[in-house]
């Protein structure tokens, strides 16, 4: 197998974007990962790869994906959606199997996208308090720069902010290495305002900003509406009105360049890394990231793993 040469082509990355993309992560599902012959042909060694656990996905499929990623030199980070876990015994079993079979050391804890909990868990806070993840290198939790009506039905962010304050305190009292990984969005200004608000509230958890990878406009619109993306959806809607661009892939260059410029001008800005949702395909996303400078793992992010 010919491994991918991570040298870029003659197209330069936008100013500041290469540094901003260093240490990016990417999300897969077992079924999408199965379509990749060898991740070493696509991703830099050591890349953190989240494994989405959708309701109904057998744990054996999740474990097989984690084992494969570990064997190919990546850092698997499986999702633990609280509302699909039936009981504490199941949680303990999953954690033990991930640790024993795939040397999993990192996890994303979240409420999950189902309305009715399968058992006793309905929030990431309960998972954190369970003690099941003691000894993990890193624990991530979900963030919503444009709000989450599943949590705050009135359109405010009161409950979400209360939860983030709780998670901040958990990180401080346990010395857990934590970060917030966000829903994807399409416009930099709401992200910057949200990150600045968190800082003003005293929430210092690093932010891994969710970004939708290159995809057809129709695909992005479908996922954005289904996932409850907020006002930044207007970026896609404006693009849809331009018939000259309707059939062209939508790329995240503008939002990432704007965020990279803001980070360069404000080094203390809370975004630590980029997390890609490869809605247009894993290969397409990986190729775009490399073309735009995301070829090297950031030592500060990966030295602990």
From TrEMBL:
InterPro entries xrefs: FAD-linked_oxidoreductase-like
UniProt entry keywords in alphabetical sequence: Oxidoreductase
GO MF entries: oxidoreductase activity
Domain of life: Bacteria
Protein name: 5,10-methylenetetrahydrofolate reductase
Species of the source: Frigidibacter mobilis
């Amino acid at each position: 197998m010919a491994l991918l040469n991570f040298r870029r082509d003659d197209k330069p990355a936008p100013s500041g974007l290469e540094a901003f993309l260093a240490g990016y992560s990417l999300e897969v599902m077992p079924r999408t990962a199965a379509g990749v012959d060898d991740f070493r042909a696509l991703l830099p060694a050591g890349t953190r790869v989240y494994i989405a656990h959708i309701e109904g996905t057998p744990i054996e499929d999740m474990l097989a994906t984690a084992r494969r990623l570990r064997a190919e030199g990546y850092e698997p980070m499986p999702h633990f959606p609280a509302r699909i876990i039936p009981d504490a015994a199941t949680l303990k079993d999953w954690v033990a199997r991930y640790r024993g079979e795939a040397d999993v050391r990192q996890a994303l804890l979240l409420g999950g996208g189902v309305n009715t909990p399968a058992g006793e868990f309905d929030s990431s806070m309960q998972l954190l308090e369970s003690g099941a993840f003691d000894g993990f290198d890193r624990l991530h939790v979900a963030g919503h720069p444009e709000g989450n009506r599943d949590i705050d039905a009135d359109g405010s962010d009161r409950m979400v902010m209360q939860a983030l304050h709780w998670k901040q305190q958990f990180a401080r009292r346990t010395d857990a290495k934590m970060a917030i990984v966000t829903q994807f969005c399409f416009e930099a200004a709401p992200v910057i305002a949200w990150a600045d608000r968190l800082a003003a509230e005293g929430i210092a958890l690093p932010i891994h900003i969710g970004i939708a990878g290159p995809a057809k406009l129709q695909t992005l619109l479908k996922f954005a509406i289904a996932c409850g993306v907020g006002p930044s959806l207007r970026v896609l809607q404006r693009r849809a009105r331009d018939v000259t661009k309707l059939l062209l892939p939508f790329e995240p260059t503008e939002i990432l360049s704007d965020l990279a410029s803001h980070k360069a001008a404000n080094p203390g800005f809370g975004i630590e890394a980029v997390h890609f949702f490869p809605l247009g395909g894993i290969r397409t996303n990986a190729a775009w990231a490399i073309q735009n400078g995301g070829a090297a793992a950031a030592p500060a992010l990966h030295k602990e793993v």
